[in-house]
Structure formats: C-alpha cells, structure tokens
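Input for the complex:
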Amino acid sequence: MDLTPYNNSVSNDSYNLRQSTPYLITLNVCITKRNPNVYNRIGMWPSSTLAQLKALIATYLRIDLPVNRFFLEILDENGYQWKIIDDSNSSATINQLQLRPESILSIEYYDKIIPGHQRPLYSNNNHELMLKLCQKPLDKTEYTLFKMSSLSTVGELRKQAYAAFNKLSKNQPIYLLNEDNWIKFASDMDDCTLDELSIQSSAFISIEPAEENFDSKLPTGLCGLGNLGSTCFMNSVFQCLSNIPEFNKRILAFTDEVNAPIIDEYKKLIQKIWSGKYRYIDPSLLLNNINDNLPRYASYRQQDAQEFMNHFLHLIHAEFSTKDTVITDLFYGQIQSSVRCLACQHIEITNESISFLPLPISNYNQKTVLYVKANGEHRLVSIQIDASIHRIGNLIDCFLRQHESTLTRERIRAFEVVSNQNKNQYENYDSFSRIRDGELAFLECPEKASHQKYIFCKFVDHSTNQPFRPPIILVCSSQECHYIHLSDQIDQLLGHLCSMTNAPPSACQLYWMDRHGNRYKLNGNDELPNLSGIVIEMDAEWIDIYRVSNNINYSSDNSALASLLSDFFREESLDGDYHCLKCQKSTKARKKSNLCLPLPHVLIIQLKRFTYDIYSNNKIDAYISFPLYGLDLNEYLVKDKSHENASNSSTKYDLVAVSNHMGDLISGHYTTYAKNIQDGNWYLFDDKIVRKLNSDNDILTKNAYILVYVRTT
Ligand SMILES: [Zn+2]
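Predicted:
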C-alpha cells in the first residue's frame, strides 16, 4: 500500500490538544467493504465539502471516475452496517455531515444500481461472468472471452488475466473499461470480489501495457487529452493541430510580450503534449481562455470540430499584433473565381482568402472497393456508379469497365474482408448498399480448368498468427495436388513480398492446410492430400516495412477525394441571372474557381457530411477514400502566365491528421488519427487514449471529417 495520507502521524490524542483551533479530522477509507479493517487514513478540514472529500477519496483509491458517479457509505458505530451518506447536497461540509473522527468510509458506484433499488451489501449472488480480455493492452478492438465467478477476487482475476498472456502478475494492475475510461485496480484491491465492484458480463478487462511501451524510446507527442464533458471535438482539433510540425515550431518560438492568453496557454499545451512526461493531460486552462472569448463553447455541448478549428485559429490570429501572422502564413490560401458573361464573354475576377476547403459530398456517387490481384498487389479503387446500380454483379461490371477491361465477371469474387480476413462471400445478386464501407473486396481469380479448384493463400505474422494483408485466391489441381502445381503462383507471391520489403526469402515460411484444418510445413516434393489452403508466414520486422511500402501504392488519382476536388473546381453555370458590369445586361454566366499560388503550407479539407435544412440535420455516411501521400493540387491552379514563375514550390501534399466523427451531430464522438513526426507511425487519439494503428489502411474510414494535409517540400 503506497498511499500516503499526510496526517499519518496525527494520533487520536492530538484532537483533544487542538480543540480551539481548526483541526484535521482523520477518516478511514476502506479498500473493500468486505474487510473494513483494511483502510487508509485521510485528513480533512471540518469546513471541507462532501465533494472535496469524494475527490480526495477518488484520488487515494485511484478511481478514475467523476465524483458524481459514486457515493460514500459509512460504517455505523457498532461496525455492523453500512449507511449511505446523503449525497443530495455536495457542498455540505464535513462538520455539517457530523462525520466522527476515525469514521470508516467506503465507496459505492451509482451506475450499476437500478434507480430506487439498493444493491445488497453482501451479495451471495454467485454466478458466472463472461469477461472480455483485450488482446492488446487498453485496446478493446480484439479480445478473448474468459469465465470468472462473480465471487472471484480481483487478485484471482489479475493472476488469470496475466496468465492468459503467459505472464506472471508481479503486482501489476488490472484495468476495467467503464464507458470510455480505463479504471485501474492496483494489487491493493486484490481482496475485492468482482461482485463488489459490480463487474458484469461482457466487461472489458486489460492487463497493463508492457513497460517498453512507455519508456523513453517511445516518441513524444503521444499524449491523450482529458474530456471535460463533451469536449472531444476540441481534443480532436488540438490533436490534429499538434501534429503539424511547422505550426508547433512557430507557436513554441512565440515570445511576444503582448497580452496573448490563448497563444500562451496553447503553447503550454503543446509543450506538455511533446514533453514525453504525460500519458494524458487536461486542456482546461486553454478551454477557460477560449470560453472567455467564445462563450458558446462554455456550454460543454457537442459542437462541430471544423467550426471550432476555424474559430480557434482565428482567436490565435487575433492575438498577434500584426496583419500577417503564423496563421495567415501557414493556413491561408487564395481562391480566384472567374465569372464569364455569356453575352459579351467578359470575365470578372475576384480573389478570396480561404483557411480551409469545404467539399460537398452530397452528390457523391462512387463506391470504393479493395481490389486484390492474383499476383499479390492490392489497392483501393473507386468505381463510378449511378443510382440504378444496387447489386454486386452490376458493381463488378462497372469495375471491370472502368479499371480491368481485360477480365470477365467470372474472374472476380466479392468478399467482405475485415482485418485482412474473409468473412463472407457475396453473390452477384446481393445488394451492396448494406455492406459496410471499406469492407468490400474484389479478389481476382486465376484462370481455372475443369479439373482444378480454387484455394486461399493467407498471409500471417509469424509471431502473432494474425493476417497482415488480405488473402489471395490460388488455383490448384482438384486431385493429387503436388507442390509443383502451385510453385509458380507461390513464387510470384514470395517475389511480391520480398520486392516490396527487400526481405530475404528466409523471412517467409510456407505451410499448407488440409481440409480438416491441420497445418503442415510445405516442402518441395510433397504430395498435398486434401489441400484446402496455403499459409505464408512472415517475420514481423518485414511486415512493418511491407505495410508502409504497400500503402504508397494507394493511388491518389482515383481516390474519391480527387473526384470531389474536381467537382469543386469544375466550371459551372451560375443559378439565376447575372448582371454584367461590362455589357450592363442581365444575362447568364459561368463560374470557375481555381487555387492561386502560393499554395498554403497546411491544407485543411472539410468533407461536408452534415446537411442542414429546415427539416433535418442529416449526416452523410459515405466512405470517401483519400490519399495519404502525394495529393496533387496542380490541376486546380490558376493557369496564368504571371503565376508560372512562382511555381517552383511543390503542389503536393501529404496527410498528417484526420478528425473523425462517429454517430450523429448531437450524440456523436470525435477522435483523431495523426502521424507522429518522430517515428512516422499513425496513432489514434481518443480523448485520454492514445494507441498505435495496426495498419495505415485503418485511417481510411467513413468517419473521416477533417483532413489535414501538409505541403511537401
Ligand atoms: Zn457581359
């Protein structure tokens, strides 16, 4: 027990000595109600409030919960019964509550109790719990189920959880997911039963992340931000901005003596985030300053992240004493609009500053699928579709016409692919509208003769046995198949893996599976009875390289984003009549927008998912693919002689961050994916939680709302 109450040395006698002056009241906080004899002593002033007492207890017990989520109970003088301390007035003082010195207190959680019903103090309700043990620490995406009795103790749970990873629990804590927070139970909670802690079936349990995850080798900048009540939209924006290296550099270099409270607080926030000292911090001081300037954000209601980003950058801009600031320098570009009078052909040109590009997606009519070729290559492709296309077979036809005109429909199989595994095969008559975006894959089948059959080749990580890329379809002989029948196809795949990574052939091991699921090493001359599949294992060090190099193949030209940009900059007819200044006629006109040089250092793109009209606030959930590297704006530039000299600088952009929005506008949640400048990996920032993404492919989701690109040099 390493809790260190500051009045450990105060004995009972000292109260009597100091009756006339303010004195500390010693209270005892139980770790577990099962054993009221195990407690910590804490000291409170009689004038302290109940809320302060609860906050202190939460700190001492290391319970990561706001004070309104638990209440206090007190053991009666006879030591028989726990009584609830009235919580209705949290500003009541210790004195008013008449808490005796040396009272024994315990806590209980609100959220597990049905209103109007009190949970029994000592439950004999022994039942089986099915818990979800996270495969990766503090990451609920993958888990295994395991059974525990509700009367098992935290200590037993801890031992079993660590044992599941072949680890001895050396008093490391165990974590429980409560809504979005991981609650830590240290070994001093070992005597508590799961029942006492109200742990229920389906609860997520995690072991402690390995030490090396938090040592000095880890890059800095991986610091979560506490949610101060529906402030995930702000956290998402701060994490996006925090991963723009040039912006950080300029903010950290800011030394003006002028009154700039927001820049000062933002600078402190960036310093803390990049100090490497904190796993997460609270941005409350910065928020207070923002709220002073923009009272609408003081309500702690869910807000639009893009609007907030714009407001926040404007506040920073306003605190500088000059017109040209780091904000105009990095974030501002210019759009030139030319309106052409169709009567006299006169062109009226206007320039407008922009700090972001709002791209409408309401007319978006593409479907993006993962295309996996038989030779090992795979990439996302966008398929243009019209409203009459609903079935997989028609989508395949569109795909073939637009991308692979040499193949036929029979050579493409449609699958649901999740985490690089085939989950479902779709038939041509299946509708694709309900297939989740990003999970539809077209697999190319090799040509097949009548005595041949198709099998899958899977690609797995040698150490984890998890697939690291989508499977491929191979063709083999239906009977008496030998390795020789497959060797050309396998050699091609090994060639693909090794050429993408420069790995030696020894980095891959080959196995074959029979139809009973048995796995055997694949050797040169083997006969392969009942062959049902091939497995290629690769060492983890090469897989990381493979993932990175393979993502460069994602084409930026046929991304959905490129098509939205083309739409945005396309010449269009103006609605209604246009009054021409030259010929003074009321006439028709066409308008075209272009980007001016110099292009902004930071390009912020808003995918306009929210549509507001009188009747509804709708969100468009379309999956919009976008390139991670090399988004080129060259074709949208003003084509003008005066601009040509200035065009030495790059027109290409690399993605550094994405603000994601899940759910609807009222009850939604924001997170950020951002690329860490130090190790080049992508991380998820979800309020307090920061974790590395398994694959760059995870960045492309239908939740992408704000894309932050930085110009390449
Ligand atoms: Zn005119």
